[in-house]
């Protein structure tokens, strides 16, 4: 555990150095408006990353969560529009249920047929995306049709300030939602046997079985929770951008996985923490945000994300090798 | 109350057509240190799995504390205090010592909360009970093998073990660590916990065990107080063979011409002038400490070192092999120390491994002559007495002794006249070792092969060689032959070098 914390310390130092550097290159970085928008950008990726963190600690990987998120938000919003329903709680519950269901499908295939999670979730992603577009259509639900309740929910701020250019900027209340979810996941991982079983399973599945861990339950827990968080994050995203796009989140899996790996989780399972993941997410979002501030073309951002994944994984692998030597 | 902690009566277990256990009975008493000995495939792993409830026997009865237990399963076994420490320990390298120790208990108690404070307290207490110091907050993967073993033992104690079964516990330990382990085991015994060692390291077992049970081919062949046994008696029971004690007498007449004559062989900085003469039918031993130059000498004979010599005569011809290919062509074969990494293709069949050195002799036009390949392999398979279903078995599935025999077979197929063996039975169990020795002696005696045997195992040399050289600092410093060639003599000579 101490080593994990030291891993987190390393990432935190890297993050702070990067912030100082970016601030020197571009003082606008430290503007209140930018910081608020940075915090906002953390929410959705962060919630999804917490799901991916669980999966990665268990030694698996999930690339289906963007598809699950898009399906959950689009099915929910389209249903709301059709029924002319304007609540908040019920739709979020529905999105979570959809997420859990699709996560359970992943878990079922992985557990029942002992298949590699990467292949299973790739397949699930394709199936889900195809079904949503095929059965529900491809039209985007725009602000004029979006349920007002959702928009109102997603637009709440907890703090307001005046930016240097005189504009009023707010800090979205959704960071509280993100924080609360992070606390819950942290508690589960660190202080419940369910959470420790995920680490045990990720460390050595066979030893976990011998120790009496219900490995099937662990697999279902991990993929269902990842699905749940994806579904929830999907609808939250929709209510924050006032739009429901069935093609949303394409290519996001790489960003999220990069953030989780950057946060110190091991690709091979058994290692990772909520705090590390949150720092990883913040770092990744900040780097992408700064590239925008520095007016770097979005296509080049893909290059940076890819490089971060490889670099972060290489550093983890190097760390593990050194430990063995 | 019975005096037996666990009693097995007439246990039989089959796998397909193989009888892994044939009406075996054995018992373990509370607080005793019991040793279960047997070669690979003797059924000792099967009986551990029966005791721990992994396998259900077809016939027989299991009694725990005198009570018959029907359908012993792993959970029942644990509830009855039977704990197995497998060779891989089944620990979680990514978790701390404390968590590894607490995890099983918490799961067994059906807890929902992970109570860290209690876990650390439990860990401290159990390690104090074992009288060992270990950082309970360290990740287990950072510990050495001996540390992991201690964690595994501590975990078994926390599960309220009354019997701890250890599968080959001393394999990866240094002598010092073995002593520490034995101290812990004696402590356990003092606390009334029985320990069953499954091992084929006889010397260590004689040191620690109270009682012994020996298995061979799925049957119990001996049991009793350890004091009733000595090493040869156990070996005899394990192998069923009366292992030959007489030194090897080479079948050579005085006028036989040497097959190899070497004078003043030097490998710069390592081998400082060695004279060696080898006649057909001789087995010449070379003993020496690590760094004495014995391996380099062997490699030099096989054309693998940048060596020079005043005389290098093979079969009367003056010729010095400058490469491995040349050496093979001259009829020299070398079986290296680390046969698995240096010699064998583990995923390939026995047949392919055997013929790989004579591929070009088996060519028929563009293709391989499969018939010749098969017949050559089958012959060698029989000569070497390899225990495998067929020559198509992958070498990776064979035991150390059988793998070593495949390697020997490969070299004999090349038609070698001179065989250089470096540590021929390292990591091979007793019976297999005896078989390899017999094969080598037969080859020398009947076929007139000349053998150089390099070994750390002094009894192996005195038992098989007709002459022995002791090497030190790149030179032969002592020579033993006939009556003078006793184990003690050579050990004394080696000790004097240190």
UniProtKB/TrEMBL annotation, chain A:
It is a multi-pass membrane protein. The chain crosses the membrane at residues 9-29, 35-56, 87-109, 116-136, 169-189, 219-237, 249-268, 300-318. It comes from the Bacteria. It is found in: Cell membrane. Keywords: Cell inner membrane, Cell membrane, Membrane, Transmembrane, Transmembrane helix, Transport. GO terms for cellular component: plasma membrane. The keyword Cell inner membrane applies. GO terms for molecular function: transmembrane transporter activity. This is ABC transporter permease. It comes from Phyllobacterium salinisoli.
From TrEMBL, chain B:
It holds the Pfam family ABC_tran. PROSITE patterns: ABC_TRANSPORTER_1 (PS00211), ABC_TRANSPORTER_2 (PS50893). GO terms for cellular component: plasma membrane. The keyword Ion transport does not apply. Residues 6-242, 254-498 form the ABC transporter domain. It is found in: Cell membrane. It is a peripheral membrane protein. Its main location: membrane. One of its GO terms (molecular function) is ATP binding. Gene3D superfamilies: P-loop containing nucleotide triphosphate hydrolases. Keywords: ATP-binding, Cell membrane, Membrane, Nucleotide-binding, Repeat, Sugar transport, Translocase, Transport. InterPro entries: AAA+_ATPase, ABC_carbohydrate_import_ATPase, ABC_transporter-like_ATP-bd, ABC_transporter-like_CS, P-loop_NTPase. The keyword Cell membrane applies. Belongs to the ABC transporter superfamily. This is Sugar ABC transporter ATP-binding protein. It comes from Phyllobacterium salinisoli.
């Amino acid at each position: 555990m101490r080593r994990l914390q030291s891993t987190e310390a390393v990432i935190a130092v890297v993050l702070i150095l990067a912030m100082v550097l970016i601030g020197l290159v571009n003082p606008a970085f430290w503007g209140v408006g930018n910081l608020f928008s940075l915090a906002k950008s953390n929410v959705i990726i962060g919630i999804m990353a917490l799901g991916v963190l669980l999966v990665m600690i268990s030694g698996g990987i999930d690339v289906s969560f963007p598809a699950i998120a898009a399906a959950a938000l689009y099915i929910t919003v389209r249903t709301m529009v059709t029924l002319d329903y304007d609540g908040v709680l019920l739709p979020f519950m529905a999105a979570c249920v959809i997420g859990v269901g699709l996560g359970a499908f992943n878990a079922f295939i992985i557990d029942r047929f002992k298949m590699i999670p990467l292949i299973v979730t790739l397949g699930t992603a394709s199936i889900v995306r195809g079904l949503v577009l095929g059965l529900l259509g491809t039209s985007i639900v725009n602000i004029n049709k979006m349920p007002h309740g959702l928009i109102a929910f997603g637009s709440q701020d907890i703090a307001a300030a005046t930016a240097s250019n005189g504009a009023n900027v707010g800090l979205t209340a959704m960071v509280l939602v993100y924080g609360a979810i992070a606390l819950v996941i942290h508690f589960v991982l660190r202080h419940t046997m369910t959470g420790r079983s995920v680490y045990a399973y990720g460390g050595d599945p066979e030893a976990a079985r011998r120790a009496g861990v219900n490995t099937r339950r662990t697999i279902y827990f991990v993929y269902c929770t990842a699905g749940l968080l994806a579904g929830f994050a999907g609808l939250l995203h929709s209510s924050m951008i006032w739009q429901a796009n069935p093609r949303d989140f394409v290519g996001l899996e790489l960003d999220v996985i990069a953030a989780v790996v950057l946060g110190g989780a091991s690709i091979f399972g058994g290692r990772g923490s909520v705090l590390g993941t949150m720092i990883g997410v913040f770092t990744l979002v900040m780097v992408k945000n700064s590239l925008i501030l520095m007016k770097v073309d979005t296509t080049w951002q893909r290059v940076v994300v890819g490089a971060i994944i490889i670099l972060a994984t290489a550093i983890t692998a190097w760390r593990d090798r050194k430990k063995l030597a | 109350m019975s005096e037996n902690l666990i009693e097995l009566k007439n246990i039989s277990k089959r796998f397909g057509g193989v009888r892994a256990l044939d009406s075996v009975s054995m018992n373990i008493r509370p607080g005793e240190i019991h040793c279960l000995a047997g070669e690979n495939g003797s059924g000792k792993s099967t009986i551990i799995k029966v005791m721990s409830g992994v396998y259900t026997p077809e016939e027989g009865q299991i009694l725990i504390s005198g009570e018959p237990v029907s359908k012993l399963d792993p959970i029942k076994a644990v509830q009855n205090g039977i704990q197995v420490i497998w060779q891989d320990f089944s620990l979680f390298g990514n978790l701390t010592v404390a968590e590894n120790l607490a995890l099983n208990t918490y799961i067994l108690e059906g807890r929902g909360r992970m109570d860290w404070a209690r876990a650390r307290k439990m860990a401290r207490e159990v390690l104090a009970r074992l009288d060992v110091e270990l950082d309970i907050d360290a990740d287990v993967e950072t510990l050495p093998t001996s540390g992991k073993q201690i964690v595994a033992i501590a975990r078994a104690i926390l599960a309220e073990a009354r019997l701890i079964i250890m599968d080959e516990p001393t394999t990866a330990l240094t002598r010092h660590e073995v002593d520490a382990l034995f101290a812990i085991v004696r402590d356990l015994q003092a606390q009334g916990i029985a320990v069953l060692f499954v091992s084929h390291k006889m010397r260590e077992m004689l040191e620690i065990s109270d009682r012994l049970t020996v298995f061979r081919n799925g049957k119990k062949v001996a049991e009793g107080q350890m004091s009733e046994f000595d090493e040869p008696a156990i070996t005899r029971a394990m192998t069923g063979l009366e292992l030959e004690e007489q030194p090897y007498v080479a079948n050579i007449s005085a006028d036989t011409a040497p097959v190899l004559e070497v004078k003043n062989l030097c490998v710069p900085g390592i081998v400082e002038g060695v004279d060696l003469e080898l006649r057909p039918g001789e087995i010449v031993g070379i003993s020496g400490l690590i760094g004495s130059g014995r391996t380099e000498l062997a490699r030099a004979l096989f054309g693998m070192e940048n060596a020079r010599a005043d005389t290098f005569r093979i079969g009367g011809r003056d010729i010095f092999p400058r490469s491995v290919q040349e050496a093979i062509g001259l009829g020299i074969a070398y079986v290296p120390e680390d046969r698995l990494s240096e010699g064998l293709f583990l995923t390939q069949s026995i047949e392919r491994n055997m013929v790989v050195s004579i591929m070009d002799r088996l060519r028929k036009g563009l293709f391989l002559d499969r018939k010749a390949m098969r017949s050559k392999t089958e012959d060698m398979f029989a000569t070497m007495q390899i225990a495998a279903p067929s020559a198509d078995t992958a070498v990776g599935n064979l035991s150390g002794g059988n793998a070593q025999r495949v390697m020997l077979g490969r070299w004999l197929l090349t038609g070698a006249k001179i065989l250089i063996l470096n540590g021929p039975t390292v990591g091979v169990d007793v019976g297999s070792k005896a078989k390899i020795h017999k094969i080598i002696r037969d080859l020398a005696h009947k076929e007139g092969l000349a053998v150089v045997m390099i070994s750390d195992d002094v009894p192996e040399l005195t038992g098989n060689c007709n002459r022995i050289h002791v090497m030190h600092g790149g030179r032969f410093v002592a020579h033993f032959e006939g009556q003078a060639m006793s184990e003690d003599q050579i050990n004394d000579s080696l000790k004097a070098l240190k």
